[in-house]
Amino acid sequence: MTILNRAGRTVISRPYFGDAAEAGAARRFISHSLGAAHPCRDDAVQLAGELISESLRHAVACGDLAGYTIAVTTTRDTCRVVLSAQSRCACWTRPALGRGVHLVSQFTPLWGAMTTDHGTTVWFEVTRSPHEPRRSQPSRSDDGAHAGP
């Protein structure tokens, strides 16, 4: 796991082997990274879960590597999730072809996808609703993994 603390934002990333049984752990990682009080937590976890499932499904269908890394960037009001998959099978990154990307494209205009020789990356950003009151700063349990800058 990698953790970067920058002024006003935190970036946390973690790799996964691509086993379908890890999808729940990846969703919990996102949830824990954001903390219970973050206004974007539920939306980010749901959308990322859809992308993870789709990435795994298409990696298997294409006979490609299924491993991926999840990176979560947070500020007080926003969350950006980046899924970087080892698979270069980019067919799932177009909204018309994949349920996960379709849901992301319907939910937020802030998303994108790119395929390179190293794999496929899909990202999205969700923000606090302007009608939602600000909550206190997200809290995380101290498991020794969080260090200062």
From TrEMBL:
Chain segments carrying region Disordered: 128-149
Domain of life: Bacteria
Name by which UniProt lists this protein: Histidine kinase/HSP90-like ATPase domain-containing protein
Source organism of the structure: Acrocarpospora phusangensis
